[in-house]
Amino acid sequence: QVHAVESGGGLVQPGGSLRLSCAASGFRLADFAIGWFRQAPGKEREGVSCITVSGAGTYYTDAVKGRFTISRDNAKDTVYLYMNALKPEDTGVYYCAAEVAMPECLGYQRNEPSRELEYDHWGQGTQVTVSS
């Protein structure tokens, strides 16, 4: 099967930090721009961040700018999402997916961070809960 594999979620207090990881099953993560998305209970899935193949381009939705950092280690075929200063509104299931169309991180370039049309190889998600 061809899909991403997310890990690193958990329960954290407000103001805390987590590091999410995105790995690949059945394909090479390093060949694609990778996007992180999240879905809160009762809400639609939204875009969080995106990183280009080289790692030189990184993008964030306004709600996480200055708090989250996306990076990649292509030698390990892994993409990371470092989440700091977490808030209760960051709670949700976090997904990563490969962008299979060009240009890279198209949704962010069009100011549509939640655009999913170009993404494939979705993972099952990892739960992040921010609560005291």
Description:
The chain has 132 residues and is mainly β. Helix content is 3%, strand content 45%. It contains 1 helix and 11 strands. It has one helix at residues 106-109; strands at 3-7, 10-12, 18-25, 33-39, 46-51, 58-60, 68-73, 78-83, 92-99, 119-120, 126-130. Strands 2, 4, 5, 6, 9, 10 and 11 form a 7-stranded mixed β-sheet that branches. A 4-stranded antiparallel β-sheet has the order 1-3-8-7, with no helix packed on it. A hairpin with a 6-residue loop joins strand 4 (33-39) and strand 5 (46-51). The model has no long low-confidence stretch (mean pLDDT 96).
Q: State the total count of DSSP E strands.
A: 11
Average of the residue pLDDT scores: 96
Q: What is the rounded Rg?
A: 13 Å
Low-confidence stretches: none
**Alpha-beta content class:** mainly beta
Percent helix: under 10%
* Number of helical segments with 4 or more residues: 1
Distance between the termini: 38 Å
Order of helices and strands: EEEEEEEEEHEE
Gross morphology is globular
Largest beta-sheet characterization: 7 strands, mixed
Strand residue content: 35-45%
Topology summary:
Elements: E1 3-7, E2 10-12, E3 18-25, E4 33-39, E5 46-51, E6 58-60, E7 68-73, E8 78-83, E9 92-99, H1 106-109, E10 119-120, E11 126-130
Parallel strand pairs: 2-11
Antiparallel strand pairs: 1-3, 3-8, 4-5, 4-9, 5-6, 7-8, 9-10, 9-11
